[in-house]
Amino acid sequence: MKLRFLGTGAAFSMKNYHPNLLVEENGKRLLIDAGGDIRFALRDVGLSSNDIDSVYITHLHNDHIGGMEYIAFTTFFNPKHIKPKLFCHKILVEDLWSHSLKGGLQSVQGKVLNIFDYFDVHALNHDGSFEWEEINFDLRASIHVFNGFSTIPTFGLIMTPKSGEKIFLTSDTQFTPDHLKASYQAADIIIQDCETSPFRSEVHAHYDDLRTLPKETKIKMLLWHYQDNVVEKFDEWQQKALNDGFRGFIRKGDLFDFFDVILKTLQP
């Protein structure tokens, strides 16, 4: 199993692409989130929407779904491309279509369409899971935004390849170590969103808070979804992260073979 980081930037980064990830196995590609930069991010690694077998959506912010119209149209109008599978929590499906995609995708010449015309939709339960190319994906709810009345749903993943090791992708999350404790402990590697701005948004885990985690958690933690200040001085931030006990920052374009690179080369 390979992980290709198409982008590692925060939502409004101007020097990086959105935090979208390709899982590659058996010649197939599962795209985790499809932000508004996705067509450029794919182009930069020599790929396009037609190279995507499946998509998993964690939540409905633009940096995670802004490229879904591109994927839908370009695959729909390609007669040689099989309809992509779409995996997401069942409570996201209706809002993804009605509040985000319907305006652009509902009408084509002579037809009225819906989300099922574009994607092979797999709606998952709250504690659900799915299997793709013999890799198991377990949903893990994260606390990202509370609007004063309810928590906006966001669902990270624990990915388990055939070898049995576990990767925990937090998705976007506040600093909630008690809520994520079980997933942190279960994981061999943690891919953690990390805010690095001096101005806290309060909806992402900030680097200064993540520094307070136990060393046995930090040593498993790869950081992404960061602001442009990291891009501008990446080597300095990388050394800082290593000094603070993290496994390090992920750079846009990094391609990791899970077993050979993450578990061996990056071992402390």
Portion of residues in beta strands equals 25-35%
Any idea what the radius of gyration is?
Answer: 18 Å
CATH class: Alpha Beta
Main beta sheet strand tally, sense and closure: 7 strands, mixed
Secondary-structure element order, as H and E? EEEHEHHEHEEHEEEEEHEHHEHHEEH
Structural class: alpha/beta
How many domains is the backbone divided into? 1
DSSP E strands, number? 16
Separate helix tally: 11
CATH superfamily: Ribonuclease Z/Hydroxyacylglutathione hydrolase-like
Shape: globular
Structure description:
The chain has 268 residues and is α/β, with parallel strands linked by helices. The protein has one domain: Metallo-beta-lactamase, Chain A (4-Layer Sandwich), CATH 3.60.15.10. It has eleven helices and 16 strands. The chain has helices at residues 38-44, 62-65, 68-76, 90-105, 115-118, 177-186, 207-210, 215-218, 228-232, 234-243, 258-265; strands spanning 2-5, 21-25, 28-32, 54-56, 85-89, 107-108, 111-112, 120-124, 129-132, 135-146, 151-160, 167-169, 189-193, 221-224, 248-249, 255-257. The model has no long low-confidence stretch (mean pLDDT 94).
In a nutshell, what does this entry contain?
This protein is α/β, with parallel strands linked by helices and 268 residues long.
Show the helix and strand layout.
Elements: E1 2-5, E2 21-25, E3 28-32, H1 38-44, E4 54-56, H2 62-65, H3 68-76, E5 85-89, H4 90-105, E6 107-108, E7 111-112, H5 115-118, E8 120-124, E9 129-132, E10 135-146, E11 151-160, E12 167-169, H6 177-186, E13 189-193, H7 207-210, H8 215-218, E14 221-224, H9 228-232, H10 234-243, E15 248-249, E16 255-257, H11 258-265
Parallel strand pairs: 3-4, 4-5, 5-8, 12-13, 13-14, 14-15
Antiparallel strand pairs: 1-2, 1-16, 2-3, 6-7, 9-10, 10-11, 11-12
